[in-house]
Each structure stands twice: as C-alpha cells, then as structure tokens.
Amino acid sequence: DNSVTKKYTIAVIPGDGIGKEVTPWAQKALEKAAEGVAEFSYEQFDLGAERYLRDGAILPEDEEERIKKTDAILLGAVGDPRIKAGILERGLLLKLRFDLDQYVNLRPSKLYKGVTSPLANPGDIDFVVVREGTEGLYCGAGGAVRRGTANEVATEVSINTAYGVERVVRYAFQLAMKRRKHVTLVHKKNVLVNAGDMWQRLVDKVSAEYPEVSHDYSHIDAATIFLVSDPSRFDVILTDNLFGDILTDEAGAVVGGVGYSASGCINASNEYPSMFEPIHGSAPDIAGQNKANPTAAILSAAMLLRHLGFDEAAARIDAAVEADIEELGSTVRSTDQVGRDILARM
Amino acid sequence: DNSVTKKYTIAVIPGDGIGKEVTPWAQKALEKAAEGVAEFSYEQFDLGAERYLRDGAILPEDEEERIKKTDAILLGAVGDPRIKAGILERGLLLKLRFDLDQYVNLRPSKLYKGVTSPLANPGDIDFVVVREGTEGLYCGAGGAVRRGTANEVATEVSINTAYGVERVVRYAFQLAMKRRKHVTLVHKKNVLVNAGDMWQRLVDKVSAEYPEVSHDYSHIDAATIFLVSDPSRFDVILTDNLFGDILTDEAGAVVGGVGYSASGCINASNEYPSMFEPIHGSAPDIAGQNKANPTAAILSAAMLLRHLGFDEAAARIDAAVEADIEELGSTVRSTDQVGRDILARM
Ligand SMILES: CC(C)[C@H](C(=O)O)[C@@H](O)C(=O)O
Ligand SMILES: CC(C)[C@H](C(=O)O)[C@@H](O)C(=O)O
C-alpha cells in the first residue's frame, strides 16, 4: 500500500572515474534497505568530466534547480586528469555544497574488524569529523595580479562568519551528546589568530549549553600527529573546511584506506537537499577496471537514509557492511562482487 | 692558533618549557663538533614566556638587531599555556622567520634504525620537506569585524608572490640534485586555484633548468595519506607555509616522534642569520622534568654546522646521533643522559 510508505526523490550524480562504478551499488543498497519503509524514485544527472568535455556544461542552472527540488543527493566522485584542476571541483562539487548550504560535512572514521590498519597499534578508532562546509578557504575569494610575471601576487582568503561557525559548532555538540560526549576543536589559532580566536570563542559559548560534553583543543599540526600516534583519543573532531579535508583523508588512511570512508554534506536546516558521497576521489588510475571498493559509497547510502530519518534501514546497511568487512575484508574482490556480497547480507 | 679557525657568533634562544632543557645540549654538541674547525662564541637571549610575563617584552628591537648581527641562531621552543595562543608565536618565532627572511624551512624526516615507527610497515623513510617560510597564511594578513557579535566576520589571507615562491622552488630542485632527484609539489590547487596555479607554474618553469630532476604533484589531503600508506615514495617535498607545518608534524609522528626531527629556517641568500630548531614545541606537560629528548635539538646543531659549511663537523653529530639511536633509542633515558651519550660518541 503506497499510502503508508513515504516517497522521496533522490538525485544521483555518479560523476567521474570510479564514481560511475560505485554509485550504482550505493543506489541498489539504498533501494534494498528502504523496501517497505520508503519509496525512492531516482533522477540521474549526467554531470562531470565527460559531460564537460562533450558540451562544456558543468552544472547548468536548470539542472541545479532540479537537484534542489530533490530530497537528497547521492554523489560518486568528481575529477579527471584531462581537465585543469579546480574546474569541476569548484564548478560542480563545491558549487553544490555552497549553493545548497551544506554547512556540515560529516565524516565518520571507524576501524572495522577485518581491516588492517597501516598502524602497528591502532587501538579502537571510532570518531566523527564535523567539517564546516561552506566557508573558510573554500569560498573562492582569492585572486591574482600580474599573472605569469615575476611580480605576480596570488591570494587566497579564508572567510569565517560567526553565523556559519556557530551553527556547525552547535551541530558538533549535539552529535557528541549521542556519542561519547567529547568535542575536540582543531584549528591553528596560534597563527590564524583571527579565525582561530572566533572558533574558540564560539566553542566556549556553545559548550555552556552542553555541560555534559567535554571539549579540548588541538592545533592542526598536533592533530595529524595524534591521528597516527593515538587516534582513539578522538570522539567528535570539529574543524574548518580545509583542516577537515586534510584530517579526514589522513583518518581514512589510518582506518585502512579511504575505501571505507563515507561522508555527508548536510544542510542541517533542511532548506535544501543534503548530499552523500564516499570521501575517495575518482581514482582515474583504476577507473573502468571493476576494481574500486564500493563500500564507502554504500555507507554513504546509509548516511542518506539516517539523514531522512530511517535509522533502522540505515542500520541494516551498516550491519551488512560490517559483517562483510569482518569476513571478507582482506580478500581481493571486484567492485561488483563486493556490492553483491553486501547486498546479499541485507 | 686562532688565526686558522674561523670565528662565529651564535645567538642562543632557549625559549620556553623543554626548549630550555634541550638547547644547552645542542650548544654543547655544536661546541664539541666544531673543535679545531671553527670558534664559536655565544650570545644568550632571554626571550619567551617568562621574559614576557616579567616585563612584557617579546622581541625588543635592540635585541633583534643584535640577533641580526650573529652568524646563526639556535632556538629551543616557544609557547606557554599561560599566554594567549599566537602572542609569542607571532611576536617572536614567526617575527624572526619573517624579519630575517628565512624563506626556506628545511625539515628532514628519516626513520632511524632503532626507532619504532607507529606504522606496521614503514619502509625506508628518508625525505626532506622544503617548506616556504615567509609567505602564505603566515603573513598575519587577516582581520575581523564586529568581533564578539553574531555578525562577526574573521578572515585570514594567504599571500603568495612569484618572487617568494620561485626562490624556494629553486632551492628544492637544487637540494633534489644532491639527493634522489625527485621533487613532489604539495598544494591544494583544485580548490586554492590562484596560489596553486602559481606554485605549479613556477615548478614547471624551474624544473626546466633541472632536467635530471623528476617532479610530480600531490594534493595536501592525498599527501597526508601517502605519509601513512607509502612514505618512502617521497624524496623532496616542496610546499607552502601552512601545508609544510602540517606535513612535517605528521612526518615526525611517522618516523617515531617529533623528538627526532630537526629543522632549519634558512635565509639561503645569507643576508641574515639562519635559525635552527627542533620541530617539537615547548611541551609544558613534561617541562622541567629532565624527560625531553634532546636529539632533535642536537640534530639542529648539525644543520647549523652544515649551513655554515662545516659538513664534516655536521656529519660527526649526525653519526653520533644515528649510533646512539640505533643502540639505545628504545631505552628510557633522561634529557641529560641522552645528551651525554651522544656527546660521548662524538
Ligand atoms: C575534490 C575536492 C574539492 C574535495 C575537497 O577538498 O573538499 C575532496 O577532497 C573532499 O574531501 O571531498
Ligand atoms: C609554533 C608555530 C607557530 C610553528 C609553526 O606553525 O610554524 C610550529 O608549529 C612549527 O612548525 O615550527
């Protein structure tokens, strides 16, 4: 009976390289997990390198408008060596994050049983990075003068607003309440004194509303050490756009490879759809070879479900992934084999 | 006969916390290594937290003028939890790096025999980070409006000049010629398109003068992965001020702790003295307990000697350190014991 299941439209943007291989598996997992609970229809968007090379379009306005009307977005990966760095990233991926005001970039890191960490003694790794997604050095507010001459000056500007920072700080403390109740602010406030000071003041302010949550601070350089020397110290890491980008890739490596790391670009006020994507890139070197691990993409489908309120359906995906990794994580399998194995467990 | 040994004046700035415990050992190693080769006199500078708390002085002009007249600087560490983040760092450490135009921040990372890396399979790690030292986000070119209100905006500006970038790029290629002839540029040119594009263009330009040196590029996020998954791929890493700060701390962790990592802030044109310091901080948690490892400070004395042209004297320190670590690296020793052990081998 359709009247009891809710209906949602999901925008699917496979993107480039292995994005195209892993995203169908995320969609299949979504579909299967939602059976009897929600009804999804999908709108496929042909965006990324091939489209750009074909007709020069990166994110046409009408397509963005259609994406804005969906309930959530599944994205694969964007980037292609044939295209100058920045064009697709800024024109498509970052444009969506910014235009859809996805101010929380949520990136869990967990060391699964069955995965070999590159660390000799990894300990229990289970933390979430709450990365700000709409400000900082990602604004595109730089410029250059006398380009190509000996007198060239190029700038990049990090813009941080109390409005933008406070909302993501609050999100981190709320998330910590559902976890081990600890927030670590990561910044470089001994050098970036203007932005760092504001981040710290807003953490101090918001923390007063969450007396059960403890919080501390780490410089970004020290945090990269802790991720290697003592990653289990972290519960919720709260940080800005650039530091979050760096820390989550390092974290992905520490938990055995970004092949297991999913992420959500979340508009926590729900004015626009949120977007879910693996944190890995398009990996041109292994693209088209049915080699990429679809696990991170499948885990991002679980994040999508959780975001829409389907906690049980999300938990079914998570449990299937966890069991799959524990049993078969160390075997070499094709993209499709991993996808089939995970779906079979759901 | 004094007339055959060259005379040098070394400014010694022990700074804060463990800086005060390790710097005397760096000075002793310097003294011993230079015996019969060079004659050093030392000027001690009481700069850092205690001085600041005592009389409010951070880097008085006349003292900076005296420092400028020396031949090289030995620095310990700067920073104290009693003082707001940024005051000493920017007023003393970064002020010296900038005023003395120390545009090459040279940071070798080597996994010594006898040191346990936190990585399960570290491989042969031996690379150098060439970090730009006088530009980027470290310029202090940010600001804030409506501070403390809901409408606060705080900015940080990364300033990059062709002049400043090209000279450090050239230094990296020259250094690569003396090593394994490979340079990896690390940046985030898919997001920081203005600065990233300039860095890449200048690398491409300078590389034409060094046809024997191969070069590649890695985004900063990917580089933090490689440092964990495949650190032996790197020979010379060339990067900007902030990325260099982050990568060298992570690299320090990967080679078994920043206790073994020395650094030079080098004015490669020799208009002003260069400065040598361990990359670790003042470590207030273990300060005053005779626990800090003086190895990194001692290795920075070797870098100082090499900078002044005393390669053999530098090699004596390096060899003593290497032998000490190989034999005793895993034993728990006091600061003074490690210092004595290394000196005894020289
Ligand atoms: C592709 C790139 C623009 C992006 C970023 O820097 O945010 C990626 O690295 C990520 O982490 O999602
Ligand atoms: C203390 C701090 C300002 C400094 C830096 O960021 O450069 C330190 O982290 C370093 O790496 O030497």
Main interface by residue count: A-B, 69 and 69 residues
| CATH superfamily caption of the largest domain in chain A | Isopropylmalate Dehydrogenase
How much is the average pLDDT of chain A? Answer: 96
Write down the Rg of chain A. Answer: 20 Å
- CATH class call of the largest domain in chain A: Alpha Beta
Overall CATH architecture of the largest domain in chain A = 3-Layer(aba) Sandwich
Number of domains of chain A: 2
Order of helices and strands of chain A: EHEHHEHEEEEHEHEHEHEEHHH
Task: Tell me the number of strands of chain A.
Answer: 12
Percent range for β-strand residues of chain A: 15-25%
Oligomeric composition of the shown chains:
homodimer
| H/I helix tally of chain A | 11
Poorly predicted regions of chain A are none
EC number (chains A, B): 1.1.1.85
Catalytic activity (chains A, B): (2R,3S)-3-isopropylmalate + NAD(+) = 4-methyl-2-oxopentanoate + CO2 + NADH
Keywords (chains A, B): Amino-acid biosynthesis, Branched-chain amino acid biosynthesis, Cytoplasm, Leucine biosynthesis, Magnesium, Manganese, Metal-binding, NAD, Oxidoreductase
Subcellular location (chains A, B): Cytoplasm
Describe what you observe in this structure.
The structure is a homodimer of 346-residue chains. Chain A has 346 residues and is α/β, with parallel strands linked by helices. Chain A folds into two domains: 1-116 and 258-346, Isopropylmalate Dehydrogenase (3-Layer(aba) Sandwich); 118-255, Isopropylmalate Dehydrogenase, CATH 3.40.718. In chain A, 41% of the residues lie in helices and 22% in strands. Chain A is built from eleven helices and twelve strands. The first copy, chain A, has helices at residues 19-34, 49-55, 61-68, 87-99, 162-177, 193-207, 220-229, 241-254, 295-307, 311-328, 335-345, and strands spanning 6-15, 38-44, 72-77, 104-110, 126-132, 143-145, 153-161, 182-187, 214-219, 236-239, 262-266, 274-278. In chain A, the strands form two sheets. The first copy, chain A, has a ten-stranded mixed sheet, sandwiched between helices. In chain A, strands 6-7 form a two-stranded antiparallel ribbon. In chain A, helix 1 (19-34) runs parallel beside helix 11 (335-345) and helix 9 (295-307) runs antiparallel to helix 10 (311-328). The radius of gyration of chain A is 20 Å and the shape is globular. Chains A and B meet through helix 4, strand 7, helix 5, helix 6 and helix 7 of A and helix 4, strand 7, helix 5, helix 6 and helix 7 of B. One 3-isopropylmalic acid sits between chains A (79, 89, 93-94, 245, 279) and B (190-191, 221).
